[in-house]
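User: I'm designing a mutation panel for Aldehyde dehydrogenase (NADP(+)) and want to avoid disrupting the core. Could you give me a predicted structure to guide residue selection? Please restate the sequence first so the numbering is unambiguous.

Assistant: Good idea. Sequence first, for numbering, then the predicted structure tokens:
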Amino acid sequence: MSVQGYEPRTGKAFGDPIPSTSDSGVGEIVDAAAQAFPAWSGLASAERGAVLERLADALDAESELLISTADSETALGVPRLTVELKRTTNQLRLFASVLAEGSYREATIDSPNPDIIPPRPNLRRILQPLGVVAVFSASNFPFAFSVAGGDTASALAAGCPVVVKAHSAHPQTSQETARVVASVLPQGVFGIIYGTEAGRVLVRHPLVKAVGFTGSTSGGRALFDLAQGRPEPIPFYGELGSVNPVVVLPSAAANRSAELATGFAQSLTMGVGQFCTNPGLVFAPSSVVDAFAEAVGGVGGGAMLTERMRDSYESTVDSLSAHPSVRLVATGSDSDGGWSVTPRLYQVSLKDFLADKEKLTEECFGPAGIVVTFDDPADLPEVLRTLEGSLTATVHADPDDHDLAASVLEEIRRFAGRLVFNAWPTGVAVSWAMHHGGPWPATTSPLHTSVGATSIRRWLAPVTYQSWPDALLPPELQDANPLGIPRREDGVLITP
């Protein structure tokens, strides 16, 4: 068995097939990662950060080859891939700064106090790396959520060796990226495997201590169940499906319909709709439908990443077109060749949406969206209360809408991880405050983010040292605080 890449614009094979990794091959790579764990996790944070900086520089130096390879395998376009690779190297540099700052260790000290009940000994708590982390690459982000992407960067920063399962949609890109990563990192700290069955073997390996995944709900759920069904269950951090509902309130609709329509069409069709934050569901007054339809009708389609994704998209839009309560209001211009699709926009009333909500809230991976029209915005909170977890939820409102927006906010903040106001959800900043997550089925763990500085928290677990002599404590917990990191001491956060 092997993994073959293809050119989505033509459907033709690209590059030589890469052999699938055997069970024994997976075992050898994981064993090497486990052997590398003590030394990698034992490096001072600043030293690990310096390695991440060198890795970012090495990827930037190979940008021309990486981008051209990825464009052939994904058809995402050189401009988009150039930005994505820079985002990837900037993620690595962000985690170097996270390591230098030091608060990610959550160093906490409680001084002994024999006079309280119960008496308190000398307690010192810190987060420590879990061990080998398995990372499953995403199809739609061949750099930022793949071999050297956010899960890999955050796990390496935490002190965990990483074994990546390459995505079958871009094996040549994965291979070239892995070559660069392996040239910088110490032996065993990074490994890569190929093939669907190899991924299952990886999750079951007893030396793997956590998994990061970005992909479909069905694929993620299968691997999540595998991780939980092991003799030693392990954390599985999956980013899965999301419809990213948008609410357009009446004054915004009346005052800015053309502007909103343009923004929506651009967001819906960005990357041929292959974004996890694609705004697939819009609640709006019927007055905006014509403007939205005109905007979507004026944009072109493009090639999807794989033939399977193309077929799934066509099956979904065919089903929507055949739905008795759903009306097709716009079709974008054709895009010829390969695995190309055309954008589509549908309309359904709020009443009919509620009558078949389960079907109409299924994620359509691609450039298709549904406008759910309402007459009375007072009906929205009750409807929004029934929606499942999502990565984002968006509100478009003018000042006259703010009372309504407040009632909408009360509902969306319960099911979405990022709440967007007067903007569109596509595009995720990589920063300290970003949360890219949400309740099921958006992710398997709403407590954590897969983007931003705090994504490192997934690969760390707490340990408390009780009554240990200062010389035997990690530097982060020693009295002198030799690394000069922020610490909470007797309940007070102290920043040197």
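For picking mutation sites, this is relevant: The mean pLDDT is 97. The radius of gyration is 24 Å.
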